[in-house]
Design a protein that fits this description.
Blueprint (H helix, E strand, L loop, with lengths): L14 H6 L8 E5 L5 E5 L20 H12 L2
Antiparallel strand pairs: 1-2
Length: 77
Amino acid sequence: MESTLTTKGQITLPKALRDALHLKTGDKVIFEPLESGGYVLKSRTLDVRTLKGFGSYKGAKKSITDMQDAITQNAAK
Protein backbone atom coordinates (compact mmCIF):
# COMPACT_ATOMS: atom_id res chain seq x y z
CA MET A 1 0.00 0.00 0.00
CA GLU A 2 1.14 3.49 -0.69
CA SER A 3 0.21 6.94 0.55
CA THR A 4 1.45 10.45 -0.24
CA LEU A 5 2.76 12.95 2.31
CA THR A 6 1.11 16.38 2.02
CA THR A 7 2.86 19.73 2.43
CA LYS A 8 1.41 19.81 5.96
CA GLY A 9 3.14 16.51 6.83
CA GLN A 10 -0.11 14.52 6.74
CA ILE A 11 -0.90 11.20 5.12
CA THR A 12 -4.17 9.43 4.44
CA LEU A 13 -4.09 5.79 5.47
CA PRO A 14 -5.58 3.58 2.76
CA LYS A 15 -9.04 2.25 3.60
CA ALA A 16 -7.83 -1.37 3.55
CA LEU A 17 -5.25 -0.51 6.24
CA ARG A 18 -7.77 1.42 8.36
CA ASP A 19 -10.14 -1.53 8.14
CA ALA A 20 -7.42 -4.06 9.01
CA LEU A 21 -6.45 -2.02 12.10
CA HIS A 22 -10.11 -1.29 12.98
CA LEU A 23 -9.32 2.45 12.97
CA LYS A 24 -12.08 5.01 13.25
CA THR A 25 -11.98 8.81 13.06
CA GLY A 26 -10.09 10.19 16.06
CA ASP A 27 -8.25 6.95 16.89
CA LYS A 28 -4.55 7.15 17.73
CA VAL A 29 -1.80 5.21 15.95
CA ILE A 30 1.72 4.38 17.05
CA PHE A 31 4.74 4.36 14.74
CA GLU A 32 7.06 1.89 16.45
CA PRO A 33 10.71 1.94 15.30
CA LEU A 34 12.41 -1.30 14.31
CA GLU A 35 16.12 -2.11 14.69
CA SER A 36 16.31 -2.35 10.90
CA GLY A 37 15.46 1.35 10.62
CA GLY A 38 11.87 0.82 9.49
CA TYR A 39 8.67 1.38 11.40
CA VAL A 40 5.61 -0.64 12.33
CA LEU A 41 2.22 1.08 12.40
CA LYS A 42 0.03 -0.06 15.30
CA SER A 43 -3.42 0.90 16.44
CA ARG A 44 -3.36 2.45 19.91
CA THR A 45 -6.98 1.47 20.45
CA LEU A 46 -8.21 -2.09 20.67
CA ASP A 47 -11.35 -3.51 19.21
CA VAL A 48 -13.39 -4.76 22.17
CA ARG A 49 -13.75 -8.10 20.35
CA THR A 50 -10.05 -8.77 21.01
CA LEU A 51 -10.92 -9.14 24.71
CA LYS A 52 -13.37 -11.99 24.10
CA GLY A 53 -12.53 -14.88 26.43
CA PHE A 54 -9.76 -12.93 28.16
CA GLY A 55 -11.34 -13.20 31.59
CA SER A 56 -13.11 -16.48 31.19
CA TYR A 57 -13.22 -18.83 34.16
CA LYS A 58 -13.54 -22.54 33.53
CA GLY A 59 -13.80 -23.85 37.11
CA ALA A 60 -16.79 -24.54 39.31
CA LYS A 61 -19.24 -21.66 39.80
CA LYS A 62 -18.45 -19.42 42.79
CA SER A 63 -20.75 -17.29 44.88
CA ILE A 64 -20.12 -13.63 45.64
CA THR A 65 -19.18 -14.66 49.20
CA ASP A 66 -16.62 -17.17 47.85
CA MET A 67 -15.09 -14.45 45.66
CA GLN A 68 -14.98 -11.92 48.50
CA ASP A 69 -13.32 -14.49 50.81
CA ALA A 70 -10.69 -15.25 48.15
CA ILE A 71 -9.97 -11.54 47.69
CA THR A 72 -9.64 -11.04 51.45
CA GLN A 73 -7.28 -14.02 51.79
CA ASN A 74 -5.06 -12.96 48.90
CA ALA A 75 -5.02 -9.26 49.74
CA ALA A 76 -2.90 -10.00 52.79
CA LYS A 77 -0.15 -11.60 50.65
